[in-house]
Amino acid sequence: MRRFDPPPQPWLAGHRGVDLAGAPSTVVRAAGAGTVVFAGTVAGRGVVSVAHAGGLRTTYEPVSATVAVGAHVARGDPLGLLDAGHPGCPAGACLHWGLRRGRLYLDPLVLLGLGRVRLLPLGGQR
After folding, report:
1. H helices then E strands: how many in the chain?
2. Residue 58 phi/psi, 5° resolution?
3. Does 113 reside within a domain?
4. Range of the structural domain that residue 31 is part of
5. How far is CA 119 from the centre of its chain?
6. Which of 7, 58, 71, 99 has a CA between 20 and 30 Å from the CA of residue 108?
7. Could you read off the pLDDT of 4-24 as tens digits, one per residue?
């Protein structure tokens, strides 16, 4: 429903993930194997975050978590149920799916081979 649209500067407004249309109570599943590092509420919405190998972290919201912090999940394991009410979502419910490496937000669609490729300079500078 809405693509990744990072801001030109980290402190500016932008869309740091993608919104995927769904239906309320749809099972939300882990994008890959990892450890649940957050399962709770942020600004009134349920959020689940999973740490993956290579310093990646995926986030899922609004989700009523069915997992606990510290749980190890495999790709496709249930994390919770999708809640209705994501702001700006024209569907019955939208999953906001995010991806980060450290403090850098990435397009989560790259995990599916669908995102835009962005080359970074050598030496880890961003």
Report:
1. 0, 10
2. -105, 145
3. no
4. 18-108
5. 21
6. 71
7. 777 888 788 877 888 999 999
